UniProtKB/TrEMBL annotation:
SUPFAM superfamilies: Periplasmic binding protein-like II (SSF53850). One of its GO terms (molecular function) is peptide transmembrane transporter activity. This is Oligopeptide-binding protein AppA. The keyword Signal applies. It comes from Lentilactobacillus parabuchneri. Residues 28-42 have a biased composition (Polar residues).
Length: 598
């Protein structure tokens, strides 16, 4: 089963350590494509008792400590999801190769279109790692956390409001969610959720209408929802439903795991797992020194050449569901109405200005020359891995400096000395927010600034340098801010591509605050009653992609192959498009053929 969190914040998007100075008006390189790589690796030798009694050493490559939030419903970054993934990610459902929810997970799902209900039935032998049973309240309470006015969870959106009573609860007008009931009581094994209407997306893992994880209600019930993210029950003494339970951890640095004897599935083979944070600059050297069996989130694209031929390892990789994007600050979040608002006179409100900045950066050349096909420029905000929904005909924003200058001039921007000024003649200074990362990602951020200044725009990095990831998202998370005008962020999607939680009017993750009636209408059309017809739904997805490229308030920046070296003592490793290391198809399948790395 894959992660049911709709969006996860990614760290800085990885690029090569060299910047490319574009020397022509149009890119001389065609859009780069990913290289091919096997998605699996399994050592040919038999697994041994000595190997499985030893420790599986796993790297989490990131340039900042992980936050340490164990509950999936509260997590907003992929690093926390990674380091706690042996615990199962709190996952409810199982999905097939087409990403559809099927029977066989912690719980089964039944959708009733006639009555607009979703019935969740928990398996009888489902238990938490402390031995307590998984109950109906554990399913329902996740919705209370999401909808609570004082929550730190960022999953609420118009999609979630289709649950009857959720909007009233979210506004503080009701103490409970009327549309969620328990046929056999809170301690039973069944939950029925009533909706205003069912949506096609609800058939798939990770949709934004039906939450796909549980929370240990009895373990956390005495903690205020507003305090959950910092509570010892979540941070220091968490419990899990997956194949492993937490043995110990060093906050922000590592987690250690042992088998969970109460796990409902098959018992895992490996007795000890250690997951360690490794900086992107040290990752390649660590694998060459045989410190790790594999990396969870993969390695930076810039390190492909350094690790592709390491003795004792085989690379495994797959096109990811993550992507980097450019975002422009065009408004603010109204905390009273709980929705994003476009500001008519925002600095970045002119779409020609936004498009000019996008056309002036030669991403194709960067990728093809320096990244060996591991990373490439996508052309829309729906990654190409979604073959049905992706608009492959869209051009996106290939490099064209002449076009960029023409767009500025057509919009009334004029040169005054070295820099363009606003159409009203006022000075124009643009603040760029970039995340601090590896030398590679920091260098590409400087390249982007270089190109924008070459265009004639006075672009400066916020605080004069790349920002630490938590500081970066702290600024963007403010309801109204003027420290960042344009930024490069990253998201990891699930298997259901509906983007309402990111680009919707009431989406907390809409940190550029882009809102239009047409965008709302198009987003709603992706899951209306007509959208049960697959042809119609595909057509609407493509219309939305065309519209977003036209508006350019958000634009795709990069997508990549998620790859890692896998040590030759590991059996049954699979690198999938998404967080494949979540149960029940990854951790409980792994085995080792020797005590030490080969």
């Amino acid at each position: 089963m894959k992660m049911n969190k709709k969006w996860l914040v990614l760290g800085a998007v990885s690029f090569s350590a060299l910047a490319v100075a574009a020397c022509s008006n149009k890119s001389s390189e065609s859009q780069s494509k990913p290289i091919s790589m096997p998605t699996t690796y399994s050592a040919p030798e038999k697994a041994t008792k000595a190997g499985n009694d030893s420790t599986l050493n796993v790297a989490e490559v990131v340039d900042a400590p992980f936050t340490g939030i164990t509950l999936a419903v509260l997590q907003d970054n992929v690093e926390d999801s990674d380091v706690y993934s042996p615990g199962g990610g709190d996952q409810l459902f199982k999905s097939n190769k087409d990403f559809k929810i099927v029977k066989g997970g912690l719980a089964n799902l039944k959708l009733d279109r006639k009555n607009n209900t979703a019935t969740i039935t928990i398996r009888k032998n489902a238990r938490w790692s402390n031995g307590s049973p998984v109950i109906a309240k554990d399913v329902e309470y996740a919705y209370e956390i999401i909808g609570n006015q004082n929550t730190t969870a960022q999953q609420y959106s118009a999609d979630m409001a289709t649950i009857k009573g959720m909007a009233a609860y979210h506004k503080g007008k009701a103490k409970s969610i009327s549309g969620i009931t328990y046929p056999h009581g809170q301690n039973g094994k069944q939950v029925v959720i009533s909706y205003t209407h069912l949506s096609p997306a609800m058939q798939y893992a990770g949709n934004s209408f039906l939450w796909g994880t549980v929370v240990p209600y009895n373990h956390i019930k005495n903690v205020k929802i507003s305090k959950l993210s910092s509570a010892p029950a979540v941070r220091k003494h968490p419990i899990f439903v997956g194949p492993y339970k937490l043995h110990n951890q060093v906050q922000g640095e590592s987690t250690a795991w042992v088998p969970n004897k109460y796990y409902w599935g098959q018992q895992p083979k490996i007795k000890h797992i250690n997951i360690q944070v490794v900086s992107s600059s040290n990752a390649a050297a660590a694998f060459k020194a045989k410190k790790y069996d594999f990396a969870l989130g993969g390695l930076p694209a810039s390190q492909y050449k350094s690790v592709k031929d390491i003795k004792g390892y085989t690379l495994a990789g797959a096109p990811g569901l993550s992507y980097g994007y450019f975002g422009f600050n065009v408004g603010h979040f109204d905390t009273k109405k709980n929705k994003n608002v476009m500001d008519k006179h925002s600095k970045m409100g002119n779409k020609n200005l936004r498009k000019a900045m996008l056309y002036s950066v030669d991403l194709d050349k960067v990728n093809k020359k320096l990244l060996s096909g591991v990373q490439w420029r996508p052309n829309t905000l729906i990654p190409p891995i979604f073959k049905k929904y992706h608009d492959s005909k869209a051009a996106g924003f290939p490099y064209d400096m002449a076009k960029a200058k023409k767009l500025l001039q057509e919009a009334g921007y004029k040169k005054k000395g070295k820099w363009y000024v606003q159409p009203n003649g006022k000075k124009l200074t643009i603040h760029f927010g970039a995340m601090q990362g590896s030398a590679a990602s920091n260098e590409i951020s400087r390249y982007e600034v270089q190109q924008w200044r070459k265009l004639g725009l006075n672009v400066q990095m916020t605080n004069g340098r790349p920002l630490e990831i938590n500081s970066f998202y702290s600024i963007l998370g403010e309801p109204k801010q003027n420290k960042i005008d344009v930024f490069v962020g990253g998201w990891q999607l699930t298997y259901e591509p509906t983007p309402t939680q990111f680009y919707g009017e009431d989406a907390t993750y809409n940190m550029g605050h882009f809102v239009t009636k047409k965008n709302t209408k198009l987003l709603n059309s992706l899951n209306n009653n007509k959208a049960w017809n697959q042809k119609y739904r595909i057509k609407q997805f493509k219309k939305w992609q065309v519209y977003m490229n036209k508006e350019a308030a958000y634009a795709p920046q990069s997508t990549l192959l998620s790859f890692t070296p896998v040590n030759h003592r590991v059996k049954n490793f699979k690198q999938a498009a998404y967080n494949n290391y979540l149960f029940p198809t990854f951790w409980d399948q792994l085995e080792l053929t020797s005590r030490d790395l080969k």
